[in-house]
Amino acid sequence: MHELRITTLGLELPKAAEPRYEYVPVVVHAGTAYVSGQLPWSGGSLVATGLVGAEVSVELAETAARCCLLQALAALRAALGTLDRVERILKVTGFVASAPGFRDQPRVIDAASRLLGEVFGDAGRHARSAVGVAELPRGAPVEIELIVAVRPSETGGG
Fold this sequence. Notes:
By secondary structure, the protein is of the alpha+beta class. The chain has helices spanning 2-8, 58-80, 105-120, and strands spanning 26-29, 32-38, 41-42, 45-46, 86-97, 127-133, 142-150. A five-stranded mixed sheet has the order 1-2-7-5-6. A two-stranded antiparallel ribbon has the order 3-4. Strand 1 and strand 2 form a beta hairpin. Helix 2 (58-80) crosses helix 3 (105-120). The two termini are 19 Å apart.
Protein backbone atom coordinates (compact mmCIF):
# COMPACT_ATOMS: atom_id res chain seq x y z
CA MET A 1 0.00 0.00 0.00
CA HIS A 2 2.81 2.50 0.85
CA GLU A 3 4.88 1.30 -2.10
CA LEU A 4 1.91 1.91 -4.40
CA ARG A 5 1.45 5.39 -2.90
CA ILE A 6 5.10 6.25 -3.68
CA THR A 7 4.47 5.31 -7.31
CA THR A 8 1.12 7.13 -7.44
CA LEU A 9 2.78 10.31 -6.17
CA GLY A 10 5.38 10.03 -8.94
CA LEU A 11 8.20 9.73 -6.42
CA GLU A 12 11.33 7.74 -7.08
CA LEU A 13 13.43 6.67 -4.14
CA PRO A 14 17.17 6.93 -4.66
CA LYS A 15 19.58 4.09 -4.03
CA ALA A 16 20.16 3.88 -0.28
CA ALA A 17 23.30 5.80 0.65
CA GLU A 18 26.26 3.72 1.79
CA PRO A 19 27.62 4.67 5.23
CA ARG A 20 30.89 6.54 5.00
CA TYR A 21 31.72 6.13 8.68
CA GLU A 22 31.19 3.57 11.46
CA TYR A 23 27.42 3.18 11.72
CA VAL A 24 24.57 1.30 10.08
CA PRO A 25 21.84 3.17 8.18
CA VAL A 26 18.94 1.43 9.96
CA VAL A 27 18.63 -0.63 13.13
CA VAL A 28 15.43 -2.64 13.59
CA HIS A 29 14.71 -3.80 17.13
CA ALA A 30 11.50 -4.92 18.83
CA GLY A 31 9.20 -3.57 16.13
CA THR A 32 10.94 -0.22 15.83
CA ALA A 33 13.26 0.98 13.06
CA TYR A 34 15.78 3.70 13.84
CA VAL A 35 16.97 5.43 10.67
CA SER A 36 20.33 7.16 10.98
CA GLY A 37 20.60 10.81 9.96
CA GLN A 38 20.33 11.20 6.19
CA LEU A 39 21.82 14.02 4.14
CA PRO A 40 20.24 15.55 1.01
CA TRP A 41 21.99 13.47 -1.65
CA SER A 42 20.71 13.60 -5.21
CA GLY A 43 22.54 12.17 -8.20
CA GLY A 44 25.71 11.53 -6.18
CA SER A 45 26.08 15.03 -4.70
CA LEU A 46 24.43 17.19 -2.08
CA VAL A 47 21.58 19.37 -3.41
CA ALA A 48 23.08 22.30 -1.50
CA THR A 49 25.77 23.20 1.00
CA GLY A 50 25.99 26.02 3.47
CA LEU A 51 23.98 27.66 6.20
CA VAL A 52 20.26 28.25 5.84
CA GLY A 53 19.54 31.94 6.10
CA ALA A 54 22.90 32.82 4.50
CA GLU A 55 24.16 30.73 1.56
CA VAL A 56 21.01 28.57 1.36
CA SER A 57 17.49 29.96 0.94
CA VAL A 58 14.57 28.57 2.92
CA GLU A 59 13.08 27.24 -0.33
CA LEU A 60 16.27 25.35 -1.23
CA ALA A 61 16.48 24.06 2.35
CA GLU A 62 12.91 22.73 1.99
CA THR A 63 14.01 20.88 -1.15
CA ALA A 64 16.99 19.53 0.79
CA ALA A 65 14.66 18.33 3.57
CA ARG A 66 12.57 16.41 1.02
CA CYS A 67 15.75 14.85 -0.39
CA CYS A 68 16.81 13.83 3.12
CA LEU A 69 13.45 12.19 3.65
CA LEU A 70 13.62 10.31 0.35
CA GLN A 71 17.09 9.07 1.37
CA ALA A 72 15.67 7.96 4.74
CA LEU A 73 12.83 6.09 3.03
CA ALA A 74 15.33 4.44 0.67
CA ALA A 75 17.40 3.28 3.66
CA LEU A 76 14.25 2.04 5.39
CA ARG A 77 13.13 0.13 2.29
CA ALA A 78 16.60 -1.45 1.97
CA ALA A 79 16.44 -2.61 5.60
CA LEU A 80 12.82 -3.80 5.58
CA GLY A 81 12.50 -5.06 2.03
CA THR A 82 9.37 -2.95 1.50
CA LEU A 83 7.84 0.23 2.89
CA ASP A 84 4.58 -1.69 3.24
CA ARG A 85 5.93 -2.89 6.60
CA VAL A 86 5.76 0.67 7.96
CA GLU A 87 3.02 0.82 10.58
CA ARG A 88 3.57 4.42 11.66
CA ILE A 89 6.17 7.18 11.59
CA LEU A 90 6.79 7.84 15.28
CA LYS A 91 9.37 10.62 15.35
CA VAL A 92 11.26 12.88 12.96
CA THR A 93 14.33 14.78 14.06
CA GLY A 94 15.44 17.46 11.64
CA PHE A 95 18.72 19.34 11.94
CA VAL A 96 19.11 22.62 10.06
CA ALA A 97 22.55 24.21 9.66
CA SER A 98 21.52 27.75 10.55
CA ALA A 99 23.08 31.16 10.04
CA PRO A 100 23.10 33.37 13.15
CA GLY A 101 19.60 34.72 13.74
CA PHE A 102 17.84 32.15 11.53
CA ARG A 103 14.84 30.84 13.45
CA ASP A 104 12.64 29.19 10.82
CA GLN A 105 13.87 25.60 11.29
CA PRO A 106 10.30 24.26 11.69
CA ARG A 107 9.35 25.61 8.24
CA VAL A 108 12.30 23.80 6.66
CA ILE A 109 11.45 20.47 8.30
CA ASP A 110 7.74 20.92 7.48
CA ALA A 111 8.65 20.00 3.88
CA ALA A 112 9.66 16.51 5.07
CA SER A 113 6.67 16.24 7.40
CA ARG A 114 4.26 17.07 4.56
CA LEU A 115 5.86 14.44 2.35
CA LEU A 116 5.47 11.81 5.08
CA GLY A 117 1.77 12.69 5.26
CA GLU A 118 1.44 12.36 1.49
CA VAL A 119 3.09 8.94 1.48
CA PHE A 120 1.71 7.39 4.69
CA GLY A 121 -1.51 9.35 5.36
CA ASP A 122 -2.44 9.41 9.06
CA ALA A 123 0.33 6.88 9.76
CA GLY A 124 2.78 9.57 8.61
CA ARG A 125 1.74 12.03 11.33
CA HIS A 126 4.55 12.10 13.87
CA ALA A 127 6.22 13.72 16.84
CA ARG A 128 9.07 15.98 15.77
CA SER A 129 12.03 18.11 16.68
CA ALA A 130 13.41 20.81 14.36
CA VAL A 131 16.80 21.90 15.64
CA GLY A 132 19.15 24.64 14.48
CA VAL A 133 22.83 23.65 14.50
CA ALA A 134 26.09 25.41 13.62
CA GLU A 135 27.37 22.80 11.12
CA LEU A 136 26.36 19.48 9.58
CA PRO A 137 28.51 16.79 7.93
CA ARG A 138 29.91 17.67 4.49
CA GLY A 139 28.45 21.17 4.78
CA ALA A 140 24.88 19.93 4.26
CA PRO A 141 22.13 22.39 5.16
CA VAL A 142 19.73 19.72 6.49
CA GLU A 143 19.91 16.24 8.05
CA ILE A 144 16.91 14.10 9.01
CA GLU A 145 16.54 10.95 11.11
CA LEU A 146 13.44 8.83 11.70
CA ILE A 147 11.99 6.46 14.27
CA VAL A 148 9.41 4.14 12.72
CA ALA A 149 7.04 1.45 14.02
CA VAL A 150 7.24 -1.58 11.73
CA ARG A 151 5.15 -4.68 11.19
CA PRO A 152 6.88 -8.07 11.37
CA SER A 153 8.12 -9.52 8.12
CA GLU A 154 5.82 -12.09 6.54
CA THR A 155 8.84 -14.38 6.39
CA GLY A 156 9.41 -13.94 10.12
CA GLY A 157 12.67 -11.95 9.93
CA GLY A 158 13.30 -8.42 11.29
